[in-house]
Amino acid sequence: MLQLTDILIILAYLAGTIIIGLAARKQAQKSKDDYLMGGKSLPWYMLGLSNASGMFDISGTMWLVTLTFVYGFKSIWIPWLWPVFNQVFLMVYLSMWLRRSNVTTGAEWILFRFDSGKGGKRSHTIIVIFAILSCLGFLAYGFIGLGKFVEIFIPWELISPYVPFEVAPAYIPHFYGIIFTLFAVFYSVLGGMSGIVWTDVLQYGIMTISSIAIAIIAWNAFGENTLNVPNDWMNPFFGWELNLDWTGIIDEVNTKIAEDGYSLFGLFFMLMLFKGILSSIAGPAPNYDMQKILSTKSPLEAAKMSAFSLGALIPTRYLMVGGFSILAVLFYDQLDLRTAGVLDFEKILPAAIEQFVPVGLLGLLLAGLLAAFMSTFAGTLNAAQAYLVNDIYLKYKEPDASSKKIKKMNYLSGIVVVIISIVLGFFVQDVNSILQWIVSALYGSYVISNVLKWHWWRFNGEGYFWGMLSGIIPALIFPIFTDTLDLYYFPIILVISLVGAIVGTYTAPPTNDKVLMNFYEKTNPWGFWKPIATKVQSVNSNFKKNKGFSRDMFNVVIGTLAQTLLVIIPIYLIIREYSLVLYCTIVLSISIVILKFNWWDRVKKENSKSVNM
Q: Which pLDDT score is estimated for 297?
């Protein structure tokens, strides 16, 4: 139960968000770019902290704690489903490619790639639809995670006497989600990108202090108690089958593993890696991550921002994830994981917080996790507003709208998106179900078209439109006919989308040469661009074709290794495996040195030859 000290800390944080929203309002009202992108004047390290903060969300942290509790060290691979290593692709080359376009949104980028002809307009329309669906999915995902989190700390019995209507037990999390969503709406709608970034930096500081404290509590507890887990729980490596048997320890966990469908872990890993690589090459989806990249001052700062996000997020987050997971395993019998009589492993994080975190730190941690929800929610909301205002209202309704009208549309679009996401949230019963739909179905429709747009000159706007549409339709239909929508549906949606993309491409002429040459000269991607490269070089003899595919892929492998070590080192530290911490740190140091010479030095050299945009 929350004490007065904890309540005061939470109220102080909520008051801080209101102050930041009001303070950032003046800057946000200057122009459309100031509202949606902070005027492209925010430092890369602040955007990096903001991006890290946005990924340190309640729903994701609840999911990671559940995974670590159930699967132990093998859980380090499961977030590749997202895939978490897409940040490495962004760091190595994609952030720079994207930022060179100098556009405001992902939909605007589509016109940069395909022009504003029939195919370009169709492509622009379909990416706006996808972006809004994606944003609504993420908002519902955060909404339900927040509600399930809060209901442990504020029992419904305390609220029900003051609520003049009956709320069914299953919808209590949704009620709490609505209440705390309103604070995120305030500072994000009022302060725009600047308000979001400043609030995220505050949240990151709170979460860093909380993560270190939780890790210390778990470290002390591990020294005084015995960890009772299956034999293979502490082994990060795996074979074809998972081979984790919780029988006689916590029998219910075996049911959870069967429900997740990860028993054939080798097959799951191969599908996950295949899907993850394609998703990463496709580039960032049109959400808050892309908006932060487009908000940087230059391509070089975009690369720095993506790299800094990784270093800021992972060790901090996994000190908390590892700490709570170890505490939950050590003291499982003390946790209350039932809602309306049903066992819910997604409640491990809030139950562990309630049980093990002392007064004062509890208030700080809850403020930080509430802030994490608000950060993700606000960033996603900002992205949705960007598409609605910039890519629908200003493009099709009123291109010459005054600043006053744009401000009103920003506010109105934000309110509409929030209302729709809350309604959708009422149809979501758990974090994992909406997560599976986003990463397996919806992103399956995104992958093929967005891989081809970077790497194949002949791919046109018609191909993009039909590739996306033929993937989105089954992604929306499949959930109607099945209760489970997981990774195994991804290849089906992928093939359907590929057929749509190829057929669509060859039913229309290629994109105009001038558009392709402008895109290729500015972005300079590697891939199948020979006819366009030849034309660019005939006009610009100084232009050099990008031959960095092998180097980029090598750096991605090294970066992914470093990222994975940043995940596992904090957990080894908590369970006092100091020799493994040392070995992992040595390999991590070698990886960083390789990246310094083979990535960073080359990136600086290449960008010094071009004019930053």
A: 87
In the numeric block, which tokens belong to residue 56? 């340190």
- Burial string for 441-467 (b: 16+ CB within 10 Å, else e) reads bbbbbbbbbbbbbbebbbbbbbbbbbb
Q: What is residue 441's DSSP assignment?
A: I
Tell me how crowded residue 584 is: count the other CB atoms within 10 A of its CB.
19
Specify whether the CB–CB gap between 300 and 610 falls below 8 A: no
Q: Give the dihedral of Cα atoms 17, 23, 29, 32; nearest 10 deg.
A: -50
Contact present, 11 and 362 (Cβ < 8 Å): no
For residues 338 and 148, is the Cβ–Cβ distance under 8 A?
no
- Give me the phi and psi of 535, to 5 degrees please: -70, -40
Q: Which long-range contacts (CB under 8 A, 24 or more apart) does 588-595 make?
A: 588/562, 591/558, 591/559, 591/561, 591/562, 591/565, 592/562, 594/558, 595/555, 595/558, 595/559, 595/562
Report residues of the chain scoring pLDDT below 70. Answer: 1, 21-22, 24-40, 138, 140-149, 151-152, 154-174, 177, 180, 182-195, 286-288, 339-342, 374-376, 378-379, 424-442, 479-488, 608-613
Between CA 317 and CA 157 the distance in angstroms is 32
CA distance 385 to 601: 37
Which H helix or E strand runs over 584?
helix 578-595
**Distance separating alpha carbons of residues 379 and 373, to the nearest angstrom:** 10
Q: Determine the Cα–Cα distance for residues 15 and 153; give it in Å rounded to an integer.
A: 20
Instruction: Supply 378's token pair.
Output: 């606000």
Task: Using alpha carbons, select from 4, 2, 6 the residue that is nearest to residue 367.
Answer: 6
**What is the length of the chain?**
613
Report the phi/psi class of residue 502: left, alpha or beta, with left for phi > 0 and alpha for psi in -120 to 50: alpha
- Rounded-to-integer distance, Cα 107 and Cα 134, Å: 13
HEC-encoded secondary structure of 200-221: HHHHHHHHHHHHHHHHHHHHHH
Q: In 3D, which of 281, 321, 323 has the Cα closest to residue 64? A: 321
Secondary structure class of 114 (helix, strand, coil): helix
CA dihedral 361, 362, 364, 367 (to 10 degrees): 170
